[in-house]
Amino acid sequence: MNRPLGKRIWAIPEGWLPPFSRGDGGRPLESHEAACLLNAGDRDAHVAITVYFAEREPAGPYRVVVPARRTLHLRFNDLRDPEPIPVGTDYASVIESDVPIVVQHTRLDARQAESALLSTLAYGAD
Questions:
Q1: Phi–psi pair at 89, nearest 5 degrees
Q2: First-to-last CA distance in the chain?
Q3: Nearest CA among 63, 67, 64 for reference residue 44
Q4: Which of 18-27, 47-56, 91-100 shows the lowest mean pLDDT across its residues?
Q5: Taking a C-beta distance cutoff of 8 angstroms, is the pair 93, 51 a contact?
Q6: Residues 108-119 pLDDT 10s
Q7: Which of 3, 20, 64, 121 has a Cα at 20 to 30 A from 75?
């Protein structure tokens, strides 16, 4: 790619991890939130995620690497270091990368038999 694709700073102002799931679909159908990170560039992306809450100080940074010319679908439910993100709690996140990336936010809410899926492009700023 001749020019960078994406931004270095992204914000997802809406986040909420459903506290439970229904059904027997296993991990693919567990309630979750995800940040889908695309690194279309020629250098690995070193990414730091800070999570903000309404009633407490932020958590993070959570650190991941997205290899060059690759994608990473990162479930917020899986973040553990420095601490798990609490379920049933409103939060927002800021994603910072040392190279431009593209970020999409997705939620699967499987608390009832009729699951709901929402997805949106995060807000990119530089």
A1: -130, 130
A2: 20
A3: 67
A4: 18-27
A5: yes
A6: 555 455 555 455
A7: 3
